[in-house]
Write a structure and sequence with these properties.
By secondary structure, this protein is α+β, with helices and mostly antiparallel strands. It has six helices and 18 strands. It folds into three domains: 67 residues, Structural Genomics Hypothetical 15.5 Kd Protein In mrcA-pckA Intergenic Region, Chain A, CATH 3.10.290.10; 94 residues, 2-Layer Sandwich (Pseudouridine synthase), CATH 3.30.2350.10; 108 residues, Pseudouridine synthase (2-Layer Sandwich).
């Protein structure tokens, strides 16, 4: 049995090949899988069969007819999660460092989604069976707050806020080197690294505008603690932008120093604040969480 996935193309800004666009839009499916799907007439562009070389632009509608896979059922697991807030429409979760947000190929257990399916049960179906309820993601090795929707109506309204940059997301990070400016804005487009497709990079071609605001909170002898505010939400945005200006995150083995002095557990990055308008009541809500112990440990080491 097939399931249909409809994607409305927006915020693209330029024409790109449909196979490239889909491989970045739905990273849980490989580019080879997408090419085979297109070749088997499983992808429609504005109601017509697409070719791998077909170009997509803002306003286009893509329909994918995906075959059922063994990953279509995600097993609920009794995994402890830190729920900061919960009501009939949504949850605010304080995700632990090292936890993957949702299942992917070869990784179907131990994720936040597995835990949510056990403790919550019903979640929105907007993102399908692999990512139920997930409004936005944070990296495996990033800790902190993220939103989960319990129903489709709440999910759609929260996603609309996210698209309009109306959801406030603030992060705390420790970066390499001493930043001399008290604050700054990094406005540099992010796309796939042309030399390594697994990584993101500041590139001009096939990229999207990315804006990060940062403020120095404390300077150490060889490091800086900053607060970063996302204006846009590109993959690995803070990590890529801070590396781009010469101050990569401590512990970041992908975008930082190859040899890490203080941690082998991934980047020191914590999503400590989130603010949004409640999808049902219309009230503005804001939540904060203190930095976890791993973050405090690094501060003690660099002081």
């Amino acid at each position: 049995m097939e399931r249909e996935l409809i994607i409305n193309v927006d915020s693209l800004g330029k024409c790109v090949r449909i196979d490239q666009y889909l491989s970045e839009k739905i990273p849980e499916h490989s580019r080879n899988f997408i090419k085979k799907l297109i070749d088997s007439d499983g992808v429609l562009l504005n109601g017509k069969e697409a070719k791998a070389s077909s170009k997509v632009k803002d306003g286009d509608v893509i329909s994918l007819f995906l075959p059922e896979t063994r990953e279509s059922y995600i097993e609920p697991e009794n995994i402890e999660i830190n729920v900061i807030y919960e009501d009939e429409d949504l949850l605010v979760i304080n995700k632990a460092k090292g936890m993957v947000v949702h299942p992917g190929h070869g990784n179907t257990r131990g994720t936040l989604v597995n835990a949510l399916l056990f403790s919550v049960g019903d979640l929105s179906g907007i993102n399908g069976v692999i990512r139920p309820g997930i409004v936005h993601r944070i990296d495996k090795d990033t800790s902190g707050l993220l939103l989960v929707a319990k129903n489709d109506q709440a999910h759609n309204k929260l996603a609309a806020q996210l698209k309009k940059h109306e959801i406030r997301r603030n992060y705390l990070a420790i970066v390499e080197g001493v930043i001399r400016e008290d604050k700054g804005t990094i406005d540099a487009p992010i796309g796939r690294d042309t030399r390594n497709r697994i990584k993101m990079a500041v590139v001009e071609q096939n990229s999207k505008r990315a804006v990060t605001h940062f403020e120095v909170l404390k300077r150490f002898p060889k490091h800086t603690m900053i607060e970063a505010k996302l204006e846009t939400g590109r993959t690995h945005q803070i990590r890529v932008h801070m590396s781009y200006i010469g101050h990569p995150l401590v512990g970041d083995k992908v975008y930082g120093h190859k040899k890490q002095t203080f941690t082998d557990e991934g980047q020191v990055l914590h999503a400590y604040k989130i603010g949004f308008t409640h999808p049902t009541t219309g009230d503005y809500m804001e939540f904060e969480t203190e930095v976890p112990e791993y973050f405090k440990k690094i501060i003690r080491k660099i002081s």
